[in-house]
Amino acid sequence: MxxxxxxxxxxxxxxxxxxxxxxxxxxxxxxxxxxxxxxxxPVDPRLIDLELAARSQAYCDDxxxxxxxxxxxxxxxxxxxxGQLVAVHPAYDEMFDGFAPEPLxxxxxxxxxxxxxxxxxxxxxxxxxxxxxxxTFSGALAWPYLYxxxxxxxxxIEAAFSELGRRxxxxxxxFEESGVDVGFxxxxxxxxxxxATFERFLDHVDQHPRxxxxxxxxxxxxxALDYLDFVDIYHPRICIFHVKDAELRPTGRSGVYGGxxxxxxxxxxxxxxxxxxxxxxxxxxxFAQYDxxxxxxxxxxxxxxxxxxxxxxxxxFIAEHIIRVTDKAFDDFAASGADEAANxxxxxxxxxxx
Length: 354
Prior knowledge:
The protein is α/β, with parallel strands linked by helices. The protein contains 13 helices and 10 strands.
């Protein structure tokens, strides 16, 4: 059995313009001071030179050495924003343009080519950093048609997933060459947002061995999906774990869809660890049961609590929930040893056959 590693923290929500939040060194020193042991790094140019990391082992060795001096490890790189741009429905073009460099805005094909290249570079950079998994989004072509009204034309969703698979297959092959898994965060707004959509995607990438899951239970709570049963079903494909809390408190006025309300007023909203409804004791038990050998990574997106308070409390919360797995069975003291002859007698098999 394996003990999950952690606590770690996803740096994306803490990146800012003022020290210590404006550089990898500053963020890493801050995180280490809170008790974190790992950092998940978004491929933002303020934190990492992705092209240099993809080609220079010396650069990656220096990055790892800097983290090591602070008692930290890189857990994964993240291309959430770039992965989103691999597949964008035209309805969202203008809103997602902000994720791309300014010269690419208003040029969807050029933007998509850039995004695919960035994710491939992240595969190579991850390998040089000694990482085994990578965090990203799938993007979405079918999301505007999530609810089947008006009635969807026959073949529409199949065509969307066929194209999504066509775009991702060569990217997944680069990850295969690099020896790195792709953890798709199953997230509303992405075509991969639950188990059924992930299975559909796998069918269109030939069950690619590098197509894995970034598991975040908060997104399943907001969909009213059984987040514990999900681990039972899909644990062989889970390679990254975002530890994030959430609550869903539907009323007679609003439910899962949220009524276009802001995050503070929605029945379903993200919360800091321990402030929501997720049973983390059961969840960490599942990961211990299934020998998950990755990291428990805090992602802070609370609608109410201050981010620095959420991070400080989150480090302790994760540390308290990590289960140091046992190296022996609880009833070993009563073991009587293996004896094949005795077993046959106990089963009534020692007598000569009639």
